[in-house]
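Revision sheet: structure tokens.
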Amino acid sequence: MSDPIQQPALTDAQWSRLCAFGTPESVEAGQYVFRSGDRDYDLVLVDEGEIEVVRDSLFWIEEAVIARMGPRTFVGELSLLNGQGAFLSARASMPSRVLRVTRAELRRLMAEDDDLCDIVLHALWARRESLRRGPAALTLKLVGSRTSSDFLALRRFAERIDLVHAAVELAPGELGSLDGHGITVDDLPVAFVQGEPIRNATPGIVAERLGLSYQAQADEVVDLVVVGGGPAGLAAAIYGASEGLETVLLDAVAPGGQAAATSRIENFLGFPFGVSGGSLIGQACLQALKFGVRVYAPCEAVRLESVDKLLDVTLADGRTIRTRTAVITSGAAYRRLELDRWGDFERAGIYYAATPLELRQVMESPVVVVGGANSAGQASLYLAANGCPVHLVVRGDDLGSRMSSYLVDRLLEDPRVEVHTGSRVVGLDGDRVLERVSIDTVGEIDARGLFCFIGAEPATGWLPALDRDAEGFLRTGTDILEQSLERWQRMGREPLPFETSTPRIFAAGDVRRGSMKRVAAAVGEGSSAVASVHRALAD
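Predicted:
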């Protein structure tokens, strides 16, 4: 590990300040300072001697030494910030003197010393990226059929929260190297955590095993719970935490929302060459960890109610988070076409995102993209640029009515994209996977994938007590209906900007009535909602 970012050279003053956050300890040769599987472990500063970081032996492979850390270095990676348990072990290769910096002290360091914060954060992040490409990836091995939507969901979860992992795709009906190990096709997908198999693995089960699920502390009351990890939710969480609020961010799937499914965003401020949704969300998640946001995913909120001037957020597993305020940024659920066999092919050829994960399923095969807004245009260009002949199906007659002009121009100029305006998909066909799509103005065409970008329904069904419009979007601020305002009159104030019909519950982003459905607008709404949160807490 000679990378100067992963193993930074610290000045005497920096090392002294860093050591001030630690507790000294002497360790003997062969003694472990933490073991894989430990739910809680420390950042370890090496003052004298050497600590070696190892991937423990698995049932099919021997132990591997990942790095050797000498004097004036520190041992740890990004899981120290996101709450994940240790997936590597660290032991002294000779008698050594170390200092332990607990996670709480690491948070204090990052809040109080900007210089050290940048150095440590860069190192932890760079190590995580390096580990994803090396032998450490085998500590979480995902195996499943390449046509399985369950396997795709598992991989999307692992990639969105930046887990160190390896993924093995199998042909449908095959087991590959798993054959003879007591695992059947019905057990797929399988997640191997430190070599131990989890059959029929789901993101929730894997998150629980890795220590990433929500664990309440006794009598804990947080300042802010943000429900939904898209751009609006991430912005709200980052601004809240950076301004001193104890903040929890929940997402039912993984941080990113629909933005993470966007292959390229070209009109976001500060990115003249464009940015993928995954990259933008990845950096935002790292920023959230920097400021101490506690991120939990998959973690679905199913109920929100006022209790004794506080709010209770109930999770799908029955656990409850008590908070002073909440910001709802739960976004929307993808709309589906009402077609026969849609359900059959949702697991084998129908996608609601166009990222490298989906691209691998349809590489260089003809595809159909449905939708007339920016997300459909961006997906079409991305798929075409990677070798897929694209049929873009738009219900309206004017491609530019809902799509940015720069995308319209590129689509019309791209010979790999055939645009069908005034058209609809009317049929799907195939054996076990999608093979053909019927378009009313064209007829039946070969298609290995159908990418659906026809909008979404607001995810507000779990919030029946809040004032919503006829389509389910949350009303906020001056948009709240008159009958709901009586409660506010009794309080002696009006709803704050972004505040819903229930005091101290706010909404931002796609879930809010009247919001602009763009990434930049969602970021602005999320951060602005926090200004109202501060005002509510001051009452």
